[in-house]
Amino acid sequence: MAETVAGATVSARRSRITPERAAELYEAVLDLLREVGYDGLTMDAVATRTRSSKATLYRQWGSKPELVARALRHNKPVSLDDIDTGSLRGDLHQMVIRSDDCQMQRDAALMRGLLHAVHENPDLHEALRNLLIEPEITGLNTVLRRAVERGEVAADNPALQYAVHVLIGGFAARDLIEDRPVDGAFLASYIDAVLLPALGV
Amino acid sequence: MAETVAGATVSARRSRITPERAAELYEAVLDLLREVGYDGLTMDAVATRTRSSKATLYRQWGSKPELVARALRHNKPVSLDDIDTGSLRGDLHQMVIRSDDCQMQRDAALMRGLLHAVHENPDLHEALRNLLIEPEITGLNTVLRRAVERGEVAADNPALQYAVHVLIGGFAARDLIEDRPVDGAFLASYIDAVLLPALGV
């Protein structure tokens, strides 16, 4: 079967499930992930919890890693691309304060639970990379590129390539080191103290 | 039993195992951690692998979290306190290049495996905090304090409190984002591009 035909088939099949129903399924997947972790999550459990058939799940999403990655992506409230405040500081602050703190802490717990699974399951890593990590990095790079175009940051500033590492450090280290949950106010202060000075802003 | 007596009893008991034998036990614990993870590691398995009795293990280390934390601490080759090159850049570079890259990658895999366990097991978190995290932060703060005393960094630089978050970001994000193992050269370049400029060096 040719690529396009296969693609059309997938779209046709996908259209059988309404966006509302897909959202319900994604929520159930995230609940199960929080309850039993990635290794404990089975397509059987998702089917039972959502009163759907395993055949439907596999037809719609192909595999467990793909379903989990799409559920996580659905969970992201706003695309980074929509942020454009006119200054790098404004963009970065909006990035970290746009989702409410409870949501951010639930996300942190979820991602922490997945971190180990990612290394045991290359398919999950691949799906997360394509659906979640790459779009976030692309969004962050758009924000940074606009700052360079506005003349806020020198095009050859070596910290540009490490912005994502710095942000992950703030996100991950807060509760590991300080035993306090991450929140928007902390990340905004971290960005002001570390990332902006490193970028020469 | 009074605190001091209990403490003395523990030291007396500890002395029954030679440092060489303790090192063997710690290596076996780290091997098991890599093989089966924290949740899968049992005191029975450690006893079998090391041909010791479970009673000895409990008498010597008290609990599984304590044994694991001591094994991880034993694994750290050099104390940060021993580093004093005369410049902040020199100290930080020596910090990240002192252990060989293979060792660093094995450590990263180990810590990644523990990250989830830490959140499920408060006793493990407590033991790691006391035996591993706090001494590292204290060592890093000593390095930073000397830089302030030398006049390299302003005492009120807001990035001082976030140095550990930045470093953890470099350590953790490298293989998550770039799918490449962390190494000393990468961390040295990350320190030069981000941490030193943020500190005004």
TrEMBL record, chains A, B:
SUPFAM superfamilies, alphabetized: Homeodomain-like (SSF46689), Tetracyclin repressor-like, C-terminal domain (SSF48498)
GO MF annotation: an example: transcription cis-regulatory region binding
PROSITE patterns attached to this UniProt entry: HTH_TETR_2 (PS50977)
DNA-binding region: 42-61
Keywords assigned by UniProt, alphabetized: DNA-binding, Transcription, Transcription regulation
Domain of life: Bacteria
Domain HTH tetR-type: 19-79
Name under which the protein is recorded: TetR family transcriptional regulator
Protein's organism: Streptomyces silvensis
Species lineage: Bacteria, Bacillati, Actinomycetota, Actinomycetes, Kitasatosporales
